[in-house]
Amino acid sequence: VTALSATDGELIWSRELGYLRRPVVMKDTLIVEPWMCDIRTGELKTRIHPITGKEVTWEFIRGGHSCGITTATDNCFFLRSYSTTYYDLNEDRGMLPFGAVRGGCWLNIIMANGLVLYPEASSGCRCSFPIRSTVVFAPREATDENRPWSVFPRRGAQTPGDDVLTPVKRLAVNFGAPGERKDEDGTLWFTYPRPQLANLQVRWVLPLALNEQVIPDMGYFSHNFKGVRIEGTDKPWVFASGCYGLTKCDVPLLGAADLPRSYTVRLCFAAPAEDLPGQRVFDIKLQDKVVVKDFDIVLAAGAPQKALVKEFKGVRVTGGLAIELVPEVESPTKAQAPLINGIEIVREGS
After folding, report:
1. What is 171-198 written as a DSSP string?
2. How many helices (H) does the chain have, and how many strands (E)?
3. CB atoms within 10 A of CB 187
4. How many CA atoms lie within 13 A of 168 on its CB side?
5. How far apart are CA 239 and CA 260, in angstroms?
C-alpha cells in the first residue's frame, strides 16, 4: 500500500501490509482487511484484548463466501460473509450478521444521508438465499434487547505469540449462547462452545477450550431471552442459555511462565420454570475444594427462572481453574443434573 500527497505527489508512506481485499478509506483510517491502519502513517491500529487486557493489533475477518466490496461510513462498515455482515466501531462488539440476504458480487451496499441502501444484486446467482429484495436500513435507538449477537474476530495461535490468551485479566463465558454479547460494563461475554468460521483454511474465531465433561445425552441449550422471563438481573441473556449435565471444566488462566494469581470467580445459575426445590442438588467445587455443599438453585434463588450469581473471592490459581459440579445422585436425569449458565472470572490486584 502506498500513500501519496494530493498536493504535490510526494511519497508519504509505503508498506507491505498483506491485505486480502481492496482497501477502503474510513475517515482517518484505512481498512486493509484483516487490519486497520492510520491513513497518515500506515501504522497498524490496536485495541485492548478483552481477555488479557493487553494491547494487540485490531483485526477482523469474514467467514465463508465473501465476494463483494467492503463499504464504510465514519464508524461502521458492511461486507459479505455468507450473508451480510457489519461492524459497528462505536460499540466494538464484533462482527454482526444480518441473515437471509446476501450482498452482490460487486458494490451494492451504499451508505447515504443516514441510511444504508441495499439494492437487490443477487438475481440470477446460484447462491441460495431466501430473500432477494431491496433492503433499506434506518437508524433506531439501541437497547439491550434489540442488539444482535456478534462473533468476536481474533486469530488462533497460528504463529508463536499470535494470540495467547494468558494471563487472563477478565473472562466471561456464556454457555450455549448464539454468539458474543457485551454488557453495560463493557465486559464481552463469549459463547461456548466456540463458533467456527471457515475462511482461508484457518480459524479466525477466538479459540477457547475448557476441556469440559458433560453427562452423556445432555449438553448445551439456548432460548430467546426475549421470550423467557428471567428475574433479578440486567443480563437476562446470560441466563437464557446454559448447559445441562456439566460436571467439570478446566479454564486456562495462566501460562507456564506466569506467577500464581488470585481471582474472583462468579458462577451464574437460573433454574428452568419446571424445577422444584430439592430436585436439582449438587456440590460446587473450585480447585478440588467444596465451596458450596448441597447447592439447590431454586432454594438459593428463591424461585425458578430467577438469576443467581455465586461469587468466590481469593481463588488461588497456578495454571487453570478447575470447576466441578457434583450431582447429589449417582446417575442423575436431566431434571436432576447440574445446570450452569455462565462463568465470569476477574483477576484480583494489579
Report:
1. EEEEET-SSBEE-TTSPEEEEESPP---
2. 2, 28
3. 15
4. 22
5. 31
Q: What is the pLDDT of residues 190-244, one digit of tens each?
A: 999 987 655 433 455 677 889 999 999 999 999 998 888 899 999 999 999 999 9
Give the number of other Cβ atoms within 10 Å of residue 65's Cβ: 15
Vertex 268: Cα angle to 262 and 271 (nearest 5): 155
Provide CB contacts within 8 A for 331, sequence distance 6+.
none
What is the pLDDT tens value at each position of the chain, 350 positions in all? 999 999 999 999 999 988 888 899 998 999 998 899 999 999 999 999 999 999 988 988 777 777 888 999 988 999 988 788 899 988 888 888 888 888 888 888 999 998 999 898 887 787 777 788 899 999 888 887 888 898 887 765 444 444 568 899 999 999 999 999 999 899 999 999 987 655 433 455 677 889 999 999 999 999 998 888 899 999 999 999 999 999 999 999 999 889 999 999 999 999 999 999 999 999 999 999 999 999 999 999 999 999 999 999 999 999 999 999 999 999 999 999 999 999 999 999 87
Q: What is the phi/psi pair of residue 237, to 5°?
A: -65, -30
With beta carbons less than 8 A apart as the criterion, state whether 247 and 323 touch.
no
Specify the pLDDT at position 202.
42
Q: What is the DSSP letter of 207?
A: P
CA distances 261 to 90, 219, 320, Å, are 33, 31, 11
Q: 299 in helix, strand or coil?
A: helix
C-alpha cell read off for 252? 486456562
Q: Using DSSP, state whether 338 is helix, strand or coil.
A: coil
**What is d(CA 269, CA 112) in angstroms, rounded to the nearest whole number?**
45
Cβ atoms of 23 and 1 closer than 8 Å: yes
| Alpha helices, H only, 111-239 | 236-239
Distance CA(321)–CA(327), nearest Å, equals 20
Cβ count within 10 A of residue 330: 5
Identify the three-state secondary structure at position 69: coil
- Rounded (5°) CA angle 245-250-252: 145
